[in-house]
């Protein structure tokens, strides 16, 4: 099958029909090219969508206090609810499956200065897990840790925006910024997919915040995530059960009417992500479908062309058979050519598409298209699909070629 | 060399069956130069196709060099064609994108002979038919007579037992036809068995034996005084 002789035969016939072979090759190459580009774009759109919608962990559960609207146990409506450390402990009690958890205390706006630079930023007292709830990633240094919390350290983690404002190009780690007349040591810089708005914040240990701002043991809100479950419906059910339990516990402790919807707000992000996950998965499906269909069109094109080639070479095949060509050698000849043309042009299309994605992918920074790229395994499997497809595309024409009777092929018209 | 007994062949055309060969008995010894004559529809082409293992008879026996030719599968038939037979066609049937040399070497390719030896042998046969200088030319750069010479060289290349020629001068003018027949006679003089199907009397006279076929039976089988083609060129 892979003797030098056969290759010579194939190159002879290909060079005899350069244009036709070229056009056939282009149809396969464009098929695989479009498939790969589509898969890359699909990946890029997924990245983009995730970035757009997921400023925070996709499955975050936030619990905020509100103002009561119903009378309960002798208490008048209109009462403002205030959470404390004990409420946070209570919310966690009896919960086994919690992935990340944090209470926070925040000051909406405070002046922070470094040397002559200053600005107003939101101050958040947080716990270590808050980083994951916010989807913040550390660029330099570290986040708030347990030791900061226990020792009431005056440590501060600043957003990238804050760093640019106060430190310009200067390094910020280990420097001290002034906040409410106290010096806080910068231990880390973070970036947040939420962009500038979420990067114009600073984080300090919640314990420190409560002392510095005279908040006693008050907290503003609390956030939790549950371990991720692949099945969306299961995840939703578990999440709802979790929030219902917390709501019951908190309402009982804080004397909020169980029917009051305003006393305690619970926002469960998982309900919002359903559409996103559906969108992403159906988009992927669509792109695969279009890509495969395009590829299929290319393969059918090859099969078609090979049929024409066999038809055109009927007489030649007849001559070869009269000279002693066995049916298998005819099948081999046609198959070999078909596989060679599809594999070669397919791999060309693949290389071109991958090159394009590799080169231009990182440059693309649209809102809904971020870093389009293709998984290497997927690229590899498309190559295998191609070679199999080339074999299938060639098989029927080859079989037809082998069935040609020399007596019919050689008959003088 | 060729031994045929009571050969029958009929074709189905729609619901009707056309009986083409109606019991042919026929022998060819080694070294003979035989022509088969007959008008169109006499069954001579069908007979040649059966002799060439391109078609199979309905009944009767066919032995080629003592080997029974019966119920062969495609693979064995191809092998026998390659080993036993050399074909020469009216329309030459050269592969037009291959050079003369490659055309002559093709039967050797199917014998699994290496490229170097193939080309050497093909070249020696091209010399034999007087076309050594034309070895690298494609068929469309050759004249009709030259094409037929290439086809003869190709038919000889695989050392066949028998050469089968189907109207080999049908597409050529008289002068070229006689040149080709001269070559055929020379090859026959060297001992090769040759069968020629023709409907031209002068060509038939250049063989040593003429078999007349009419309506599927042999009506006359006569030895003739061979006319040397060279005298008429």
From TrEMBL, chain A:
Compartment(s) of residence: Cell membrane
Keywords for the protein's UniProt record, in alphabetical order: Cell membrane, Membrane, Transmembrane, Transmembrane helix
Residue ranges occupied by any MacB-like periplasmic core domain in the UniProt entry: 21-237
ABC3 transporter permease C-terminal domain mapped to chain residues: 289-406
GO cellular component: plasma membrane
Membrane-spanning ranges: 21-41, 285-310, 330-356, 376-396
Membrane topology value: Multi-pass membrane protein
Superkingdom field: Bacteria
Protein family per UniProt: Belongs to the ABC-4 integral membrane protein family.
Protein name in the entry: ABC transporter permease
Species assigned in the record: Psychroflexus salis
Automatic annotation (TrEMBL), chain B:
Position of the signal peptide: none
Record GO terms (molecular function): ATP binding; ATP hydrolysis activity; transmembrane transporter activity
SMART domains for this protein: AAA (SM00382)
Entry keyword Transport: yes
GO CC terms: membrane protein complex
Similarity field: Belongs to the ABC transporter superfamily. Macrolide exporter (TC 3.A.1.122) family.
Name of the protein in question: ABC transporter ATP-binding protein
Species assigned in the record: Psychroflexus salis
């Amino acid at each position: 099958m892979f003797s030098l002789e056969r290759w010579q035969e194939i190159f002879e016939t290909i060079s005899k029909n350069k244009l036709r072979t070229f056009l056939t090759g282009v149809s396969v190459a464009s098929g695989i090219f479009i498939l790969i580009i589509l898969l890359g774009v699909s990946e890029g759109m997924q990245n983009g969508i995730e970035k757009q919608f997921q400023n925070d962990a996709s499955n975050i559960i936030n619990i905020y206090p509100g103002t009561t609207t119903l009378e309960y146990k002798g208490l008048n409506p209109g009462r403002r609810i205030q959470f404390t450390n004990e409420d946070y402990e209570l919310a966690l009690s009896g919960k086994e499956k919690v992935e990340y958890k944090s209470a926070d205390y925040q000051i909406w706006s405070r002046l922070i200065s470094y040397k002559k630079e200053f600005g107003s930023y939101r101050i958040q007292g947080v716990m270590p897990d808050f980083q994951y709830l916010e989807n913040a990633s550390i660029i330099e240094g570290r986040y708030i840790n347990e030791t900061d919390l226990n020792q009431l350290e005056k440590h501060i983690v600043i957003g990238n925006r804050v760093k640019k404002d106060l430190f310009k190009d200067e390094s910020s780690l280990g420097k001290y910024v002034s906040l409410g007349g106290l010096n806080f040591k910068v231990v880390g810089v973070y970036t947040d997919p939420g962009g500038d708005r979420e990067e114009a914040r600073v984080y300090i240990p919640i314990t420190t915040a409560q002392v510095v701002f005279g908040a006693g043991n008050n907290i503003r809100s609390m956030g939790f995530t549950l371990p991720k479950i692949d099945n969306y419906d299961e995840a939703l059910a578990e999440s709802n059960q979790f929030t219902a339990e917390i709501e019951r516990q908190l309402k009982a402790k804080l004397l909020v009417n169980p029917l009051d919807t305003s006393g305690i707000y619970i926002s469960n992000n998982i309900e919002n992500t359903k559409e996103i996950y559906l969108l992403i998965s159906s988009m992927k499906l669509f792109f695969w479908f279009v890509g495969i269909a395009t590829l299929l069109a290319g393969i059918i094109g090859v099969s078609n062309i090979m049929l024409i080639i066999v038809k055109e070479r009927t007489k030649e095949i007849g001559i070869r058979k009269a000279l002693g060509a066995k049916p298998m050698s005819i099948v081999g000849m046609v198959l070999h050519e078909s596989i060679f043309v599809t594999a070669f042009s397919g791999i060309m299309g693949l290389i071109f598409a991958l090159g394009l994605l590799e080169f231009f992918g990182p440059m693309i920074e649209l809102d809904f298209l971020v870093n389009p790229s293709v998984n290497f395994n997927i690229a590899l499997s498309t190559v295998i699909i191609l070679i199999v497809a080339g074999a299938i595309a060639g098989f029927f024409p080859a079989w037809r070629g082998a069935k040609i009777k020399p007596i019919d092929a050689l008959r003088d018209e | 060399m060729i031994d045929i007994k009571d050969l029958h062949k009929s074709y189905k055309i729609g619901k009707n069956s056309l009986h083409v060969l109606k019991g042919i008995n026929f022998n060819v010894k080694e070294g003979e130069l035989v022509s088969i004559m007959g008008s169109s529809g006499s069954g001579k082409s069908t007979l040649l196709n059966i002799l060439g293992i391109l078609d199979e008879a309905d009944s009767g026996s066919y032995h080629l060099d003592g080997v029974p030719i019966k119920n062969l599968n495609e693979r064995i038939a191809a092998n026998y064609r390659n080993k036993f037979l050399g074909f020469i066609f009216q329309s030459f049937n050269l592969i037009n994108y291959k050079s003369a040399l490659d055309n002559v070497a093709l039967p050797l390719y199917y014998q699994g002979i290496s490229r170097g030896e193939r080309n050497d042998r093909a070249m020696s046969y091209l010399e034999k038919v007087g076309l050594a200088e034309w070895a690298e030319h494609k068929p469309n750069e050759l004249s009709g007579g030259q094409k037929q010479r290439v086809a003869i060289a190709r038919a000889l290349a695989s050392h066949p037992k028998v050469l089968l020629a189907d109207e080999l001068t049908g597409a050529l003018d008289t002068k070229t036809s006689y040149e080709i027949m001269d070559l055929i006679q020379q090859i026959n003089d060297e001992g090769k068995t040759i069968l020629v199907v023709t409907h031209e009397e002068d060509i038939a006279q250049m063989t040593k034996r003429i078999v007349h076929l009419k309506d599927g039976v042999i009506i006359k089988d006569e030895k003739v005084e061979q006319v040397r083609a060279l005298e008429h060129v």
